[in-house]
Design goal:
This protein is an all-alpha fold. About 55% of the residues lie in helices and about 0% in strands. Strands 1-2 form a two-stranded antiparallel ribbon. Bound molecules: fe (ii) ion.
Length: about 260
């Protein structure tokens, strides 16, 4: 699976547009400054290191996050329709949590978490186009994401902390303390974490369907294949030059140009 240079570029504009539209106060500028500082790394980041996981291709991270923002806003309406107490969180908290829920995947200040696989065997046989960067000390994705936010002086609310921390729901046993409580006073006081988790789960599931179901229907070989991230010759000339013209950063431009 691959995204065109144009799609990668429009995804990035949508990503920044969500911050512009939904985030308020001085943290809006701080968030924009933060994401522009790491733009070259984040724009081409995969959402995972193994292609069996969702969106493990260049640009997959932003593509996934944008889908989660959209899904969270739609899911929000469903919860409202079913009588959820919408006064316990704000739309800004919902979108802030969605935008930053997987931020910890980017790595630390100086090193990306996912770097190109150097082991050809793992690449060919296991489909691992990326590998974890050993320069990055271990932390869970939510912990690292929250650390990066505070490191860049971007304040988040209690609701946002809880939602980002538990976005994997009970797929992460570490969340049992928040989500498996039986005492009423120990349960979350807001449905925000559940809405974000459902949005994230739905997005990842749909990304799986887009990428893998056609292969199961025999349109592609199921055997691990070498990923081809180059654009088709048909779309190359038009979409690529159009996308490149909108890119200001020279570094990013040359990275997109090499796709
Ligand atoms: Fe996610």
């Amino acid at each position: 699976m691959s995204l065109t240079a144009e799609k990668i570029q429009s995804n990035w504009q949508e990503f920044l547009g969500n911050i512009e539209k939904y985030i308020t106060g001085d943290r809006k500028e701080k968030l924009l400054t933060f994401y522009k500082k790491y733009e070259e790394r984040i724009v081409l980041m995969p959402a995972a290191h193994k292609k069996e996981y969702h969106s493990a291709f260049p640009g997959g991270y932003v593509d996934h996050v944008n889908r989660v923002v959209k899904a969270a806003l739609s899911m929000n309406k469903v919860w409202a329709e079913f009588g959820c107490d919408m006064s316990t969180f704000t739309t800004e908290e919902l979108v802030f949590s969605a935008i930053n829920h997987d931020l910890g995947k980017m790595g630390d200040e100086n090193n990306a978490s996912y770097i190109p696989q150097t082991d050809q065997w793992r690449k060919d046989k296991l489909g691992e186009d990326y590998m974890f960067n050993k320069q990055v000390a271990f932390a869970s994705v939510p912990d690292r994401g929250l650390f990066l936010l505070q490191q860049h002086d971007i304040k988040y609310t209690f609701n946002e902390m809880l939602a980002i921390q538990t976005h994997d729901g009970l797929y992460d046993a570490a969340n049992e303390k928040y989500l498996k409580a039986f005492m009423p006073e120990a349960k979350p006081r807001t449905s925000l974490p559940f809405i974000l988790h459902q949005a994230d789960m739905m997005a990842a599931r749909i990304e799986f369907e887009i990428e893998w179901l056609p292969k199961f229907k025999g349109e592609n070989n199921l055997a691990p294949q070498k990923n081809n991230f180059t654009l088709s010759s048909k779309s190359k000339s038009n979409t690529k030059s159009k996308a490149l013209n909108t890119v200001k950063s020279e570094g990013l431009k040359s990275m997109l140009d090499s796709l």
